[in-house]
Design a protein that fits this description.
This protein has helices spanning 16-45, 65-82, 113-124, 134-140, 229-236, 261-275, 288-298, 322-338, 345-354, 360-373, 376-387, 392-396, 415-424, 445-461; strands spanning 2-13, 48-54, 57-62, 94-106, 109-111, 130-133, 149-154, 163-168, 186-191, 197-203, 207-211, 239-244, 280-285, 303-309, 402-407, 429-433. The protein has 464 residues and is α/β, with parallel strands linked by helices. The strands form 2 sheets. Strands 1, 2, 3, 4, 5, 6, 7 and 8 form an 8-stranded mixed beta sheet that branches. An 8-stranded mixed beta sheet has the order 9-10-12-11-13-14-15-16, sandwiched between helices. Strand 11 (207-211), helix 5 and strand 12 (239-244) form a beta-alpha-beta unit. It is elongated.
Length: 464
């Protein structure tokens, strides 16, 4: 066996089984022509070698990372033009992943961790896109004349360490630059009570604010995301903001055995301890409101005040509303059937509920955040847990200053659920904000109103 450095390219057809079921002969005929007229010639032109092919993909190796990346992009551009005459749902699209690593050559095949990483990168790529590892990105930089978007560190199956990923897509929107404060963030890891690895980060100075877990996050990628970036930057401009990725998504362990309310609170406890927080303002958005209340009930001595935004104490299945149950059933089907689909309509089902009044670029950013942050299995597990949350009795026991904020027309969590929180927690203040989105979007009136209310409240109740 021989070992040497190589750029490994892995590609496969998106939705191959679905395409074959619709038109087996047509797909095989077109794909054979693509291989003969485009893919094979491009690999040869860029001095690469096809190691092996499968029914829906291939593995190739190059001696140059630059050649591998340029080849992948040329293939994707060529495939787009060759398939343009097909109906959208019948188009053959590739995902491509590229990694640079020491690999083992044996009897014409290649093996090793570097090949496994390339396979995981391919799985992260958008249909028609290319994902490369950070070492490949550093190697090629501006030499291929194409822009790559930083997807941050990614947790992938059977790879213990996070892998920083960069992605190229045709006609990609201009990436939002991370605010200067994001450059000061450092991601760290701690271990929860059951051994699950949790990724957390701290940034900014001032009164400490600890953000409870919310649905599908990525503590690195969020900074360049138009959905979360402005919100986080504004919070961190006056406070030390500590946040983490809940188990099952982001940079935390995706293979967690337990996804439950108790496990979420244990993760919060682990991060608070690792961060050295003695006294904190606890910020809970959406599902995070219930976990904030549960944490505060366990550790009232640590919590100076609670800020709950767009939250609920009762999950969707406990609100005694037939419409809520219908929405829940539809959502779980969408997750199971279409989370990784090339058609974003499945994820846009959630986007339309979360952000009905947001600009289109923010909606697209949220859709991408969902895809980057978690897989279908964990999205369903978290969604099912949230639907059955019941924190109403615990909320009645709190004696902590609490500010509850809620958008008047919130379609994801009705404003009545926010009002219920304010009634349950003794002495809680309630503020209704204008708008129908689930969160405050930068540039809209509710954004400034949210932070005016929060800063006034924290000035009175938060610890220094």
């Amino acid at each position: 066996m021989e070992r040497r450095l190589a750029a490994v390219l892995l590609a496969d057809i998106v939705g191959f089984s679905r395409l074959m079921e619709m038109d087996e002969d047509g797909v095989l005929t077109r794909q054979k022509l693509h291989n003969k007229e485009l893919i094979g010639p491009e690999i040869a032109r860029h001095r690469g070698r096809i190691v092996k092919t499968t029914g829906d993909g291939m593995l190739a190796e190059f001696s140059s990372a630059q050649d591998a990346v340029r080849c992948a992009i040329d293939i994707q551009i060529g495939m787009t033009s060759r398939e343009v005459g097909q109906d959208e749902e019948r188009r053959i699209r590739y995902r491509i992943g590229i990694n640079l690593a020491d690999v083992v050559f044996d009897d014409g095949d290649i093996f090793g961790d570097g090949v496994n990483v390339a396979a995981r990168l391919e799985g992260l790529a958008e249909p028609g896109g290319v994902c490369i590892s950070d070492i490949v990105h550093q190697t090629v930089l501006d030499r291929v004349g194409e822009a790559f978007r930083d997807m941050g560190g990614q947790r992938v199956k059977n790879i213990s360490r996070p892998i920083r990923v960069w992605q190229w897509t045709p006609d990609a929107p201009v990436e939002r630059e991370a605010p200067e404060i994001a450059l000061k963030q450092r991601v760290q890891f701690c271990t929860s009570a059951d051994g699950t690895q949790i990724a957390y980060a701290s940034v900014g100075e001032g009164s400490p604010v600890f953000k409870a877990p919310s649905y599908l996050t990525h503590i690195e990628y969020e900074w360049t995301n138009t959905f979360w970036g402005p919100f986080l930057a504004e919070f961190a401009s006056n406070n030390r903001l500590v946040r983490f990725d809940q188990r099952g998504n982001g940079l935390s362990d995706w293979d967690a055995e337990r996804i439950s309310p108790d496990a979420m609170v244990e993760d919060m406890e682990a991060v608070v301890e690792a961060s050295g927080l003695e006294k904190l303002a606890l910020f809970g958005i959406s599902q995070g409101a219930a976990f904030s209340v549960r944490y505060a009930a366990r550790h009232p001595e640590k919590v100076s005040c609670l800020i709950l935004f767009g939250g609920y104490m009762r999950g969707r299945l406990l609100r005694e509303d037939p419409e809520e149950e219908k929405l829940y059933n539809a959502a779980t089907v969408m997750m199971r059937e279409g989370w990784g689909s090339p058609n974003p309509v499945y994820r846009q089902f959630f986007t339309s509920s979360y952000l009905p009044d947001a600009p289109q670029n923010v909606k697209e950013s949220f859709d991408e955040l969902q895809r980057v942050s978690g897989n279908a299995e964990n999205a369903v597990r978290i969604y099912e847990m949230n639907a059955q949350l019941d924190t109403t009795e615990i909320a009645k026991q709190l004696r902590i200053p609490t500010l509850v904020l809620h958008m008047k027309g919130d379609r994801m969590v009705p404003v009545s659920e926010g009002q219920l929180i304010a009634r349950l927690i003794p002495g809680a203040q309630f503020v209704e904000l204008p708008g129908s989105n689930h969160v405050a979007i930068g540039g809209q009136p509710c954004f400034d109103m949210f932070f005016e209310e929060v800063r006034a409240f924290m000035a009175e109740h938060a610890a220094d």
